[in-house]
Amino acid sequence: MTWLVHVPVLLPVLLLPVALWPLARIATRAGRPERAARALAAGAVVTAGSGLVCLLLVAATLADDVPAIERYAHLSAAAGGQPLPEPIPDPLAVGAAGLLLWIGWRAASERHRRRAVARSLHAAGPADGDLLVADWDSPRAVAVPPVPGRRGHVLVTSGLLRLLDARERRAVLAHERAHLRHRHDRTTAAAGLATAINPLLRPVASAVDLLVERSADEDAARTVADRRLVAHTIAKVALAAHGPEAALGFGGSSTVRRVEALVRPTSGRLRQGGFTVSGSACVSALSLLVAAAAVAEFAALLQAWLPTG
Predict the structure, then answer these.
(1) Which helix (H) or strand (E) holds 153?
(2) What is the mean pLDDT of the chain?
(3) Would residue 249 be called left, alpha or beta, if left means φ above 0 and alpha means ψ between -120 and 50 degrees?
(4) Per-residue pLDDT at 184
(5) Distance CA 168, CA 212 (A)
(6) pLDDT above 70 (res 144)
(7) Which of 33, 94, 222, 299 is most buried, most CB within 10 Å of its CB?
């Protein structure tokens, strides 16, 4: 840990997550949203994981303050040996340890929140096949992810069914079933966990959320063979939905962007998806390289700590 003393903090913890921001912006316009969502989520997980490893290594240098190691250092110095190296200032290592505790709390909270949401959705009642109709006035539709002992299903409200005609209902069901088929809950959970580890990845997680909705939109459009019908359904439900949450993953500008992606030609957007995949792979590779170099430096430091015989 010589030249890598501050690089572990600056690169995978601060700089590399920011490098994913422009990729996230480009990805939201990709012609293949499913592929772009998976690439972005994977890049976020690798980057967050590499930063976590580097923080662990920085915090682990506090071990030189352990009484047993201090006694060994004094004995080694008294015998004419080399003093133990001090690669990381203690305040930086203490800060890294504090960050790790905060990250652990955030990750546990994120996992608990997602599990609680899934349990509450399953508590609405048993599904008939893969569909549950809840007698609620608010227009809602959601893909309920599987939990241990329970299969995933689509939950729609009676308010939504009254709002839509038969073709629009088919589009909604196709959208939600696409979420189940592609296991989008896992993709968004991975991006959410990465954000819990490193909040700088929040724009990436937001892009992943939009991309999985766009992916489900594309599947619905193929099922009903009418892109404009799906776009019309999205806009119709968005206007009718009320309250802080909306059906079909609506929220803010995402509705407009999804409608635009459906009504505009998809030609010319495939390169944006390819750029997202290759860019995410490059950022992931650099993150792994920095983490591997930090581990190698820490191993060399650990050898200096060990008795030579």
Answers:
(1) strand 153-157
(2) 83
(3) left
(4) 96
(5) 20
(6) yes
(7) 33
How confident is the model at residue 3, as a pLDDT? 46
The whole-angstrom separation of Cα 295 and Cα 306 is 16
The residue to which tokens 């995410």 are assigned = 280
Element (H, E) at 159: helix 158-163
* CB-side neighbour CA atoms (13 Å) of 247: 31
List beta partners, residue 155: 132, 142
Give the predicted TM-score (pTM) of the model.
Answer: 0.85
User: Rounded to whole angstroms, how far apart are CA atoms 240 and 138?
Assistant: 9
Would you say 122 and 152 are in contact if contact means Cβ atoms under 8 Å apart? no
Rg of the chain (C-alpha set): 25
Task: Give the Cβ contact number of residue 234 at 10 Å.
Answer: 27
Beta bridge partners of 156: 133, 141
> What distance in Å separates the CA atoms of residue 133 and residue 162, rounded to the nearest whole number?
12
Long-range contacts of 84-89 (CB under 8 A, 24+ apart): 84/304, 84/305, 85/301, 85/304, 87/1, 87/2, 87/5, 87/61, 87/297, 87/301, 88/1, 88/5, 88/58, 88/61
